Please model this.
Amino acid sequence: MKTINPFTPEELEKIDLLNQTFVRNLEEGNQGQIHNEDSFEKAGLFAKLQEDPEFLAEYKSRAATKVGPQPAK
Amino acid sequence: MSGFDLKRQIDLLLTNWNVGVEALHTGWGGNYKVPTVAQILEVIPDVLESIRDHQRDYNITMSNYDCNKVTNYVAWFLDKKFPGEFEMFPLFFGHLHFIDESIRSASLFHIPNLPLIAVNLEKFHKNGHMLAPYGFIKGVDLTFTFCCGDGVKKG
Model:
């Protein structure tokens, strides 16, 4: 999986450590009802953004169309 | 580490933030800062602790990172760590755009007036709420008058 945003090796190392701690804590605390908001991942949108530069450009363009006029301050 | 990937979550958050900044810059002008990875990593331990607390407080089994929670908590803790340095509504705008385009069968699709909701989410945080009331966005209650009920965690 490609990364859109660059990470340095040091940052990746730190992220990996934090990830491991989070997963460990999560596994230790997992006793309640299931809560999975991973549906965005399942929709595959982010993977597509990562892998298709043309799609990413279209996606950015669509975001710009949603801005509209600036509200009065 | 199947099912869990913090790098992916940070990548997604930064992508959404940059998309929001570019769109708002195009539409409204102005320049909006995006934090560096190093700045985000400064608050990630607090973010993960808050997610763990949420899991414990609400007795839920988190089966993955939750990009709503990650986005909200990162915005919250960045504002505390670097007060006034970043405007958060471009992040919320980018995040809402992501939601808007992710779940085409959901009522969230074609969220009207994303910028106003994003601005209000920033105000919501300023008013002391850590987690934005995404359930209310479905009803497009832009005033957030009813946001202090169950399920909304105050900071």
About this structure: The longest strand of chain B covers residues 60-62. The radius of gyration of chain B is 15 Å. The CA atoms of residues 75 and 88 of chain B lie 6 Å apart. Residues 138-155 of chain B have pLDDT under 50 and may be disordered.
